[in-house]
């Protein structure tokens, strides 16, 4: 028997889409004051952290925020994530499964590509096959969609596609909302000539500098209000100067220090998605000294989380509790907050023979707060008689380097569903398993949880697994930073939502007052 997804039963696709549109129309700023009525026209310049020559137009090869923003403007996914990190339909108008979450049917909406062609189920199958192509391993959604059996998947009709999995997965719609899952035209070959269904039509692109796009008047979800969109690349200081100096109207991922300074003026407004990202220290559980669970627990007990939030985040955030996803669906909210206990930590370190020893901490200026948090943490650890030597690495290659090098380092994650975070980072074959947490029993338990179509039972199982991770794993989540965006006082309709969600960086819903 086919079953409509739990997400649709709870909220209803039309209700959610309507809510998102209404949110964009209210025009409330970060301070909650009503803005002017929406109007059309004008150019918006949005500036993001740049990646130089590594920036790409291929929507299936992306990891940088600036790439994601460009692809979001021109392409769309079947499913996106709402502000609560639950899946909501986009190109997929609705979906249902066979009762076991092995075979899924997605009904497509009436959408049109920029070249005038209608969206069809063949486009969906082609896009997923392109993502899954083993000859191009850099397509980022391959691991999360690894259980998709394209040989058995099929078109039911022009606007209905049936996707079959090799194993049941009640979270499958959320996986289709992940990074790099955009739908392209059947036969799409040349990423330098983007043709999507998104709200903006591609004009030009120069890696490391800019993309220009114009409003697509036949967009199914109402045409954008602005006429022209420029997505630009710049470092943190340049982004700050641009939005303050009038060279940009939107600046992404700003520091708490800048936010404090900007808030004192009248030309720039800060839009803050509260506690919507995670900063952590990550310990490799298969390498000394962190292959000893007592040492991992000692470091967790040595952490003064509030001090890190106050100093590194300038108070713009909340303390973490050694797990990803606090406040998101499936997070075990009944877990007590871990408190600092230097005495207990010292006993564990003495037992492990680690007192008066030196450990190298690999860090880099790859993300705001990394070096500062490592330095402050070294001071905290020193109180228990352990020297943490902070070793800076390359900012450009830090994320890749940390996968294989060192024993402890910095980690940051944006918003995503908890099951996706586990899939990408905490299973034996996860591509981004920086803590080297590899346990067959954990893998099996996670797979069993995903097969449960009852949300309550699934949530309980996820909670058990996360309890194990918190106490035994290598993630020391110390803080949940606010995600900060700076906008010109003339910009309205920007939503305070977590990154990687539907209304984050959604420029078709903003306007210039």
Automatic annotation (TrEMBL):
Q: Which GO terms describe its cellular component?
A: ATP-binding cassette (ABC) transporter complex; periplasmic space
Biological process, per Gene Ontology = peptide transport
Which is an annotated GO molecular function term of this record?
peptide transmembrane transporter activity
Which parts of the sequence belong to the Solute-binding protein family domain?
Answer: 86-400
Q: Where are the transmembrane segments?
A: none
Coiled-coil segments:
none
InterPro entries named in the record: Peptide/Ni-bd, SBP_5, SBP_5_dom, TAT_signal
Indicate what this protein is called per its UniProt record. Answer: ABC transporter substrate-binding protein
């Amino acid at each position: 028997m086919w079953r409509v997804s739990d997400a649709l039963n709870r909220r209803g696709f039309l209700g959610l889409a309507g809510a998102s549109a209404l949110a964009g129309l209210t025009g409330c700023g970060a301070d909650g004051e009503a803005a002017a009525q929406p109007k059309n026209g004008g150019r918006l310049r949005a500036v993001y952290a740049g990646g130089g020559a590594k920036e790409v137009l291929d929507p299936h090869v992306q990891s940088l925020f600036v790439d994601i923003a460009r692809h979001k403007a021109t392409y769309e996914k079947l499913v996106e994530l709402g502000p609560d990190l639950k899946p909501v339909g986009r190109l997929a108008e609705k979906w249902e499964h066979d009762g076991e979450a092995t075979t899924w049917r997605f009904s497509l909406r009436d959408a049109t590509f920029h070249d005038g062609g209608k969206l069809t189920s063949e486009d969906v199958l082609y896009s997923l096959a392109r993502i899954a192509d083993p000859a191009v391993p850099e397509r980022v959604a391959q691991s999360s969609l690894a259980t998709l059996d394209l040989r058995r998947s099929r078109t039911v009709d022009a606007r209905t596609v049936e996707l079959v999995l090799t194993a049941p997965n009640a979270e499958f719609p959320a996986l289709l909302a992940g990074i790099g899952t955009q739908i392209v035209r059947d036969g799409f070959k040349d990423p330098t000539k983007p043709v999507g269904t998104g709200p903006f039509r591609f004009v030009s692109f120069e890696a490391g500098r800019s993309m220009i796009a114009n409003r697509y008047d036949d967009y199914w979800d109402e045409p954008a209000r602005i006429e022209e969109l420029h997505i630009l690349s710049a470092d943190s200081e340049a982004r700050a100067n641009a939005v303050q100096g009038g060279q940009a109207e939107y600046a992404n991922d700003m520091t708490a220090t800048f936010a404090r300074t900007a808030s004192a003026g009248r030309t720039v407004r800060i839009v803050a998605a509260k506690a919507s990202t995670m900063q952590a220290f990550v310990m490799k559980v298969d390498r000394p000294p962190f292959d000893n669970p007592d040492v991992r627990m000692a470091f967790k007990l040595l952490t003064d989380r509030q001090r890190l939030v106050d100093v590194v985040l300038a108070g713009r955030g909340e303390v973490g509790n050694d797990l990803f996803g606090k406040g998101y669906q499936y997070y075990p909210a009944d877990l007590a907050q871990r408190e600092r206990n230097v005495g207990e930590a010292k006993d564990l370190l003495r037992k492990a023979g680690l007192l008066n020893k030196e450990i190298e901490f690999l860090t880099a200026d790859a993300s705001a707060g990394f070096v500062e948090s490592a330095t402050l943490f070294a001071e905290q650890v020193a109180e228990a008689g352990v020297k943490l030597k902070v070793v800076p690495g390359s900012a450009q290659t830090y994320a890749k380097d940390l996968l294989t090098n060192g024993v402890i380092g910095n980690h940051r994650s944006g918003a995503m569903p908890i099951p996706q975070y586990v899939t990408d980072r905490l299973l034996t074959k996860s591509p981004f398993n920086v803590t080297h947490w590899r346990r067959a029993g954990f893998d099996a338990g996670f797979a069993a949880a995903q097969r449960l179509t009852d949300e309550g039972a699934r949530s309980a199982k996820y909670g058990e697994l996360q309890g194990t991770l918190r106490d035994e794993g290598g993630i020391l989540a110390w803080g949940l930073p606010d995600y900060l965006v700076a906008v010109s006082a003339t910009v309205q309709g920007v939503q305070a939502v977590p990154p990687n969600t539907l209304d984050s960086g959604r420029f078709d819903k903003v306007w210039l007052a």
